[in-house]
Design goal:
The complex is a heterodimer of chains A (208) and B (477).
Chain A: H1 2-13, E1 31-32, H2 37-42, E2 48-49, E3 52-58, H3 70-77, E4 86-90, E5 95-96, H4 98-104, E6 111-114, H5 119-132, E7 135-141, H6 147-160, E8 163-168, E9 181-186, E10 193-199, E11 205-207
Parallel strand pairs in A: 3-8, 3-9, 4-6, 4-7, 7-8
Antiparallel strand pairs in A: 1-2, 9-10, 10-11
Chain B: H1 2-15, H2 27-32, E1 52-56, H3 65-76, E2 83-86, E3 90-94, H4 96-102, H5 105-119, E4 124-128, H6 131-139, H7 152-157, H8 168-176, H9 182-187, H10 190-196, H11 200-208, E5 226-235, H12 238-258, E6 261-272, E7 278-288, H13 291-303, E8 311-318, E9 322-323, H14 344-355, E10 360-365, E11 375-378, E12 407-414, E13 419-430, E14 438-449, E15 454-464, E16 470-475
Antiparallel strand pairs in B: 1-3, 1-4, 2-3, 5-8, 6-7, 6-8, 6-9, 10-11, 12-16, 13-14, 14-15, 15-16
Helix pairs in contact in B: 6-11, 12-13, 13-14
Classes of the chains: A alpha/beta (208), B alpha+beta (477).
Chain lengths: 208, 477
């Protein structure tokens, strides 16, 4: 009996074992608030994780999907050492409206918009910017991509310490994805409907 | 008539006592012009620590004088280190030090003259202790080699005023006063000349008489890196080209390091057996001499290159060199943030090398009421590590009554379907002065979808006040 308990302890002590309910025990990573309290409550650490890939599945723009990340983008530009890191938006569906962004507090002199000609180039640009170490966050809009590229993006985000956000159509919902966080956004009766599809260190499910 | 006026003017001025500030007219002038009254103050001694040699090329190719003169400068630099260009057709050489080296002024002159003869150029030259004196003498075609500044005034006196190259109006006025030679002008009282003519006149005379220093900027040949390499075999594959180009880039980086300089442009020329060479132009986001950044950009471009034909020879040419500004290095070797392997300029130029110059840009907001004019793309990015205070974007202190949307449509789109209004109106009426005037009432609204009773996208819509038509202009994403 005691031998079995010991072995379970040993198994739990193994760093490779991931404890679902014990996310707080993990070394605290800096997180950035989403600006949505009910979503914050559902995320481990209370916000968007840094140095990771977040995937948002959304079919039509206009549901406030960028707004979910704007507080985090503003926070990421406020660094203690006074240096302002870059934000990169790759292949946004429309032109980012500068007055709106500066109204929200984003340092426009440190925002880079990239318009690649193809999806492959967009992915390449995302990998380069994520891993560069000079960007705090990279937002990428794509129609579709494969699993292998997502893994590369995730590794790049971890290497560069940047937050990678990928916006994709909802039809990719049932494909596997290496993203740290997966989120689906659909139209709702009064407000857009948010559903967490995958949360490392938290519980998936719809967000109230 | 004219000469009478002139002499009367001169008499008038001679009768007046000269003011102290204008009493500069020197020994030379007085000796020449006014023998009777001694100068009010002892004149400053002419400076004679320089010797200038002027060459005028009367038949110089008039279409591209700058270029021709620059080439001639390179020839002249075998005689002295300071060669200065005088547009449109003359060179000035400072030869004080060279005289000693060549033995005598006459021998130096013979040497310089022979250089032009070899080039088949007709040249008029003269040497004098001041730049303008030498130039005027050369323009007048007087081959004078003058070393003593005391003799300047006497030599210049006989020159016609036309050799000064002053503007036509000044020369016309002078000639209508009966003043036709430099000597006649020197005879006029200084105060009167200073008052009547452009201030440059008196200054030019002072410079010509070596009383006023006139430093000149020497010609510095533009230096560029240029190296080529023959390939042992014809290369068809861009991957092999990378190997062939690598030593050239290394050479270029060394060249730049030795000169403490950076470049912002590079050109790679790939020569084929037949046909024109392929030219690949590369731009760097900021001036650099770093091997890693140069390699990065060249390789990125090469990997995207479609070779039309096998390459026999590669050549690397740099743009103009720029002095590098030394930046302090971090003692702890922290380069660009956490886990950083890049700097911002490096990242941007890598993106631009692969995706194209125009595809990577920034945005800035403009203080303007019309939404379409309130922002602009920025291609000249400020890539320095730290933003100075004045470069930071000023946050508009909640001056907009309504929030602005994240996306702005390139063109407003006519609206169809039902809307649920949330906020508004905000009237924007502006721009009548430049023909792109607008008069609109903006609202924030949701698309209403009846069948499922769901709310659609949050939009920024407006009603044109004149036509009463509805348009979508932005999306709150």
């Amino acid at each position: 009996m005691s031998r079995e308990i010991l072995s379970i302890d040993r198994i739990l002590a193994d760093a490779r074992v991931w404890k679902l309910k014990d996310a707080s025990a993990a070394p605290p990573r800096p997180v950035w608030s989403t600006g949505n309290s009910s979503l914050d409550a559902r995320l481990p650490g209370g916000g968007w994780p840094t140095a990771s890939l977040v995937e948002v599945l959304i079919d039509d723009t206009g549901l406030g999907e960028v707004q979910l990340f704007l507080p985090a983008l503003v926070a990421s530009q406020r660094r203690a050492d006074g240096e302002i890191p870059w934000l990169v938006w790759i292949a946004p569906p429309y032109e980012p409206f500068a007055p709106a962004l500066s109204q929200q507090g984003i340092e426009l002199a440190r925002l880079l918009v990239v318009r690649p000609a193809s999806a492959m180039e967009a992915l390449w640009a995302a990998e380069q910017t994520l891993s560069s170490g000079v960007c705090a966050a990279v937002l990428l809009w794509l129609k579709g991509t494969d699993d292998r590229w997502l893994r590369r993006l995730k590794l790049a985000a971890e290497a560069g310490g940047a937050l990678g956000v990928l916006f994709r159509p909802e039809r990719h919902r049932f494909e596997s994805s290496p993203a740290t966080l997966r989120l689906a956004m659909t139209r709702g009766e009064h407000a857009p409907h948010l559903e967490l599809l995958k949360v490392q260190g938290g519980l998936p499910g719809p967000v109230a | 008539m004219k000469s009478r006026t002139a002499s009367r003017t001169a008499d008038l001025f001679a009768a007046q006592p000269l003011p102290a500030a204008c009493a500069r007219p020197s020994e030379a002038i007085s000796r020449e012009a006014m023998p009777a009254p001694p100068p009010a103050q002892p004149a400053s001694r002419p400076r004679s620590n320089q010797l200038w040699y002027a060459v005028v090329f009367p038949e110089l190719d008039a279409t591209r004088p700058q270029l021709s003169l620059q080439r001639l400068c390179l020839h002249a630099q075998q005689f002295t280190s300071l060669v200065s260009i005088e547009m449109p057709n003359a060179l000035l050489l400072e030869i004080k030090g060279s005289v000693k080296l060549f033995g005598s002024l006459a021998r130096l002159h013979a040497g310089i003259d022979a250089a032009w003869r070899r080039l088949g150029l007709k040249a008029q030259s003269a040497a004098a202790p001041s730049t303008l004196a030498a130039l005027w003498l050369a323009r007048a075609g007087k081959q004078v080699l003058l070393e003593d500044p005391a003799l300047l005034a006497g030599q210049l006196a006989a020159l016609p005023l036309a050799c000064t190259s002053w503007d036509a109006e000044r020369l016309r006025t002078l000639s209508s006063m009966g003043v036709r030679s430099v000597g006649e002008l020197l005879r006029l009282p200084r105060a009167g000349v200073a008052r009547r003519f452009a201030p440059g006149t008196v200054l030019d005379l002072d410079i010509a008489l070596a009383r006023q220093a006139a430093p000149r900027r020497g010609f510095v040949p533009r230096e560029r890196f240029r190296a080529r390499r023959d390939l042992e075999m014809e290369v068809e594959n861009a991957a092999y080209l990378e190997i062939a180009v690598a030593p050239l880039i290394e050479q270029c980086a060394r060249f730049l390091r030795e000169r403490q300089a950076g470049i912002q442009n590079l050109e790679l020329r790939l020569r084929h057996r037949v046909g024109a060479a392929t030219r690949v132009r590369l731009g760097l986001a900021s001036s650099t001499g770093e091997l890693r950044r140069l390699t990065d950009v060249v390789m990125q471009k090469l990997s995207r290159l479609d070779l039309a034909a096998p390459v026999r020879e590669v050549a690397l040419l740099s743009g103009s060199l720029q002095p590098l500004v030394a930046t302090p290095l971090d003692a702890f070797n922290r380069v660009g943030g956490a886990g950083g392997r890049d700097t911002a300029p490096q990242l941007v130029e890598r993106l631009r090398a692969r995706l194209g110059e125009e595809t990577v840009y920034g945005v800035c907001s403009i203080a303007e009421h019309r939404p379409e004019a309130a922002w602009r793309r920025v291609h000249a990015l400020r890539l320095s590590a730290a933003l100075r205070g004045n470069e930071k974007t000023d946050r508009p202190a909640a001056e907009h009554a309504m929030p602005r949307p994240v996306w702005l449509l390139a063109e407003p789109v006519q609206l169809c379907g039902a809307l649920l209004f949330e906020q508004g109106p905000e009237r924007i009426e502006s721009g009548w002065w430049d023909g792109k005037g607008i008069a609109r009432d903006y609202y924030i609204a949701h698309q209403a979808q009846d069948p499922h009773q769901t709310r659609g996208a949050r939009l920024w819509v407006f009603q044109e006040r004149q036509s009463k038509c509805w348009y979508v202009h932005g999306v709150f994403a």
